[in-house]
Amino acid sequence: MSAAETAQQHQLFINGQWTEPSSGQYFDVINPATGEIVGKAAIADDSDVTKAIEASHRVFPEWAAKPAAERARTLRKLQQLFLENKDQLARTVSLETGKPLQQALMEVNTCAEYLLWNAEEGRRVYGETIPAGVGNKRLKTIRQPVGPVAAITPWNFPLSMVIRKIAPALAAGCTVVLKPAELTPGSAAQVCRLAEQAGVPAGVLNMVTGNPAQIGNVLLSDKRIRKVTFTGSTPVGKLLLKQAADQVKKVSMELGGHAPFIVFEDADIEKAIAGITQVKFFNCGQTCICPNRIFVQNSIKDKFIALFKEKVQGLKVGNGIEGNVDVGPLINQAGLDKVSRHVEDAVVKGATLVVGGEKLTGENHKDGFFYSPTILSDIKENMLVSTEETFGPVASILTFETEQEVIDKANSVDVGLAAYFFTNDLSRSIRVSEALQYGMVGINDTALAQVEIPFGGVKESGMGREGGPGTLDDFLDLKLIATTI
Ligand code: ADP
């Protein structure tokens, strides 16, 4: 049997039932490392999406009224199931994205952490009493779930992006209609299957796949959906914000970044190199917190480039599921084309190609979207790599003279998600961290996607935070109750 014939078929998940789409049609899901069909996902029409919304709306009052401890128990059960099924989950992620199995396993573990964290935070949704201005009055606040939520997620972390949205939503007492990325629906379908096993009641979590704009229109124009939580590109985020404005739906947006990575001359250069190699090439550079502009102080530029080149030459590129691979493929042809366009543009405009810079077409790579890990130096501000998120395995190095100059350059873009810098000067670490206009700043640190961290950006990188102490805030409405006695 061919791969296409054995590919798993993912129906819609509506009101606790795996449901054939009204269209009767499915689209193919491709493994970007091999070009093979690894799944088929349903194409929902408007009526299917509306049924999912109806289910989420009908069951919402019951789910919201459950004791938080009971919702937490269900999420903890789901956490257990994630751990018990981690090999299979990681395999699905690796097949749909091509990413190294080890990184897919890390993603599964991260999901388990988020499930537990949100389950527990759900039990700590406190209100306040407020001293009133007059003696015969009492004021208190309570926090209540916002209602049914539309969650729209990307392909780069097909499990953890889903969990980072549904875990806080469910813990807070919201219900969800999930629309995962079309490139990775099998990972999302596995979440729904495990949620069923964990005892998440019918209708509390629903999943629809198909045409994104069409599904988005139905979700955003239905009054029963009270919130949209989205991770993805800035243009789609802006579109959803406009659509949400019509009914003043609550929104959380985790959009694109253009992260600066700054290395001062007083830094521990070995640690900086280890940090940049890890965070730049993780997930083949396809993360929104991936450094896109590496600023190295002039005096250490040559040493930095020589050491970095050595590391990058040691990275092994291949099909992630085969193991022993550091860097997988780009997600699709468009992703690969963008990377090669960025590199060509930089070279034409005078950049130096230090290492890499080519599509890989050898025996192990010919059927996938592989690109060699690349370092470019002598980057100028008029190059595409300086102005757009490359979203690929390309490290672009710029130089600077002074602290103020590099702060200004780092802040000169419209987005502000993650920023990193390396220094051993204590005063500088405080000055620079306070001056950078970013939602998250790593000082001698590159691990920002952890459950304790309030993850999110400023400026056009979005609004709202996932994880950390306020993880449920975006799924709760504050209500004031005033009593005259
Ligand atoms: P990327 O470039 O990383 O694929 P996108 O913003 O295009 O980022 O995709 C992120 C998510 O947004 C995916 O689930 C995708 O299907 C969805 N999406 C894309 N366009 C729309 C749209 N017009 N309305 C609603 N969702 C959309």
What does this structure look like?
- Helix 3 packs across helix 7 (185-198) and helix 4 crosses helix 5.
- Helices cover 39% and strands 21% of the residues.
- The strands form six sheets. The chain has a seven-stranded mixed sheet, with helices on both faces. It has a six-stranded mixed sheet with strand order 10-9-8-11-12-22, with helices on both faces.
- The chain has helices spanning 3-6, 46-65, 68-84, 86-97, 101-122, 160-172, 185-198, 212-221, 234-245, 269-281, 301-313, 333-348, 384-387, 403-410, 426-435; strands at 8-10, 12-14, 17-19, 26-30, 37-42, 128-130, 137-145, 149-152, 176-179, 205-207, 227-231, 250-254, 259-263, 291-297, 352-355, 374-377, 394-400, 415-416, 418-422, 440-443, 458-459, 462-463, 476-484.
- With 485 residues, the chain is an alpha/beta fold.
- The longest helix is centred in the N-terminal third of the chain and has 22 residues, at 101-122.
- Bound molecules: adenosine-5'-diphosphate.
- Adenosine-5'-diphosphate binds at residues 152-154, 179, 181-182, 212-213, 216, 232-233, 236, 239.
- This is Aldehyde dehydrogenase.
- Keywords: Oxidoreductase.
- InterPro entries: Ald_DH/histidinol_DH, Ald_DH_C, Ald_DH_CS_CYS, Ald_DH_N, Aldehyde_DH_dom, Aldehyde_DH_NAD(P), Aldehyde_DH_Superfamily.
- Residues 18-480 form the Aldehyde dehydrogenase domain.
